[in-house]
């Protein structure tokens, strides 16, 4: 697998990524299909065993997560917990940056910000 990239194109993207979450629908094929979990606790379980992935951040911490079915975002969604929203807030996203996910082993991905790289 190759590096998957999500561009941060605008101030609206920065707001969405830091206040809501990072939509993954454009790069879903970069992750194992069995890491997609149910939408919420009241939903029926997936027809397979959901196995999380680990994201190793460029901020020195990592988190284990699945992808929420239908919303196509990583859990946990709270910025108070180690997760995608917290990383986006702490990383200082700006328009023109890109978020990269690089395979780093079985079910492990390196998560990093590339400054000024969204158009490259």
How would you describe what is shown here?
The chain is α/β, with parallel strands linked by helices and 120 residues long. It has a single domain (4-113), classed as At1g16640 B3 domain (Beta Barrel). The protein contains two helices and eight strands. It has helices at 11-19, 84-91; strands at residues 4-7, 36-37, 53-57, 62-65, 67-68, 73-74, 98-103, 108-114. The strands form two sheets. Strands 1-7-8-3-4 form a five-stranded mixed β-sheet, with no helix packed on it. A three-stranded mixed β-sheet has the order 2-5-6, with no helix packed on it. Helix 1 crosses helix 2 (84-91).
Shape category: globular
User: How do the strands line up in the largest sheet?
Assistant: 1-7-8-3-4
User: What is the residue-mean pLDDT, rounded to a whole number?
Assistant: 91
Which range best describes the helical content: under 10%, 10-25%, 25-40%, 40-55%, 55-70% or over 70%? Answer: 10-25%
Named CATH architecture: Beta Barrel
Write down the secondary-structure element order: EHEEEEEHEE
Low-confidence stretches: none
Domains, number: 1
Instruction: Tell me the CATH topology.
Output: At1g16640 B3 domain
Report on the biggest sheet: 5 strands, mixed
């Amino acid at each position: 697998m190759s590096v998957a990239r999500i561009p941060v194109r605008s101030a609206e993207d920065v707001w969405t990524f830091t206040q809501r979450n990072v939509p993954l629908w454009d790069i879903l094929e970069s992750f194992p299909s069995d890491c997609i979990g149910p939408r919420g606790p009241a939903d029926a379980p997936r027809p397979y065993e959901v196995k999380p992935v680990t994201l190793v951040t460029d901020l020195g911490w990592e988190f284990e997560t699945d992808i929420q079915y239908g919303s196509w975002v990583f859990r946990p969604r709270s910025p108070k917990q180690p997760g995608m929203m917290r990383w986006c807030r702490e990383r200082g996203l700006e328009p023109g940056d890109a978020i990269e996910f690089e395979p780093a082993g079985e079910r492990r991905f390196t998560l990093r910000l590339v400054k000024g790289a969204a158009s490259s």
